């Protein structure tokens, strides 16, 4: 049985991730802000590798750099590293139960923080606060929700009753 694919979900989900990353948060919640763009891109690399690869991750990262106030190319590098790791382990990760996927994505988000801190060290940027390392935990906890939501939108399963 074939299911209809909803091609609008990919660009809309990326725009939503960019928007969520720009929303202001209270100061005490800032360290818990997940890397929305990374989480959404991770879903697409896992579930639709024919459309989303390293080049796509680079372009999405450049778009993220343009809308944020960060260094141009930083998010592009981070997302390319993330997409590369996901492509390498996609065959296994795709069939993990959602709880194990969440742990793997948490490790991926932690790796993203390591890449970010390495960029800051190389460029002699100010040291990142210790609360900087809390964000991967939030991403790991949100992964099942993001995965199920995007899967339902992509496959149109919310309409089947």
TrEMBL record:
Q: Share an example GO biological-process annotation for this protein.
A: regulation of cell shape
Taxonomically, which superkingdom? Bacteria
What are the subcellular locations of this protein?
Cell inner membrane; Cell membrane
Q: Which keywords describe this protein according to UniProt?
A: Cell inner membrane, Cell membrane, Cell shape, Membrane, Transmembrane, Transmembrane helix
Record membrane topology: Multi-pass membrane protein
Q: Name one GO cellular component term.
A: plasma membrane
The keyword Transmembrane belongs to this UniProt entry's keyword annotation: yes
Keyword Nucleus in annotation: no
Mind telling me which Pfam families this protein's record contains?
MreD (PF04093)
Membrane-spanning segments = 12-32, 131-153
Q: What family does the database annotate?
A: Belongs to the MreD family.
Q: What does this protein's UniProt record list under function? A: Involved in formation of the rod shape of the cell. May also contribute to regulation of formation of penicillin-binding proteins.
User: NCBIfam families per the record?
Assistant: shape_MreD (TIGR03426)
Name of the protein:
Rod shape-determining protein MreD
Write down the species: Lysobacter antibioticus
């Amino acid at each position: 049985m074939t299911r209809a694919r909803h091609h609008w979900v990919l660009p809309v989900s990326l725009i939503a991730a960019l928007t969520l990353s720009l929303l202001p948060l209270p100061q005490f919640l800032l360290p818990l802000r997940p890397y929305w763009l990374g989480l959404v891109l991770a879903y697409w690399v896992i579930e639709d590798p024919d459309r989303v690869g390293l080049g796509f991750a680079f372009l999405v990262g450049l778009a993220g750099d343009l809308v944020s106030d960060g260094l141009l190319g930083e998010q592009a590098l981070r997302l390319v590293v993330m997409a590369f790791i996901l492509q390498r382990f996609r065959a296994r990760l795709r069939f993990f139960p959602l709880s194990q996927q969440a742990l793997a994505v948490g490790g991926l988000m932690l790796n993203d923080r390591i890449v970010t801190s390495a960029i800051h060290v190389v460029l002699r940027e100010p040291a990142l606060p210790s609360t900087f390392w809390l964000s991967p935990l939030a991403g790991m906890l949100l992964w099942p929700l993001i995965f199920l939501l995007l899967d339902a939108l992509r496959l149109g399963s919310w309409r089947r009753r």
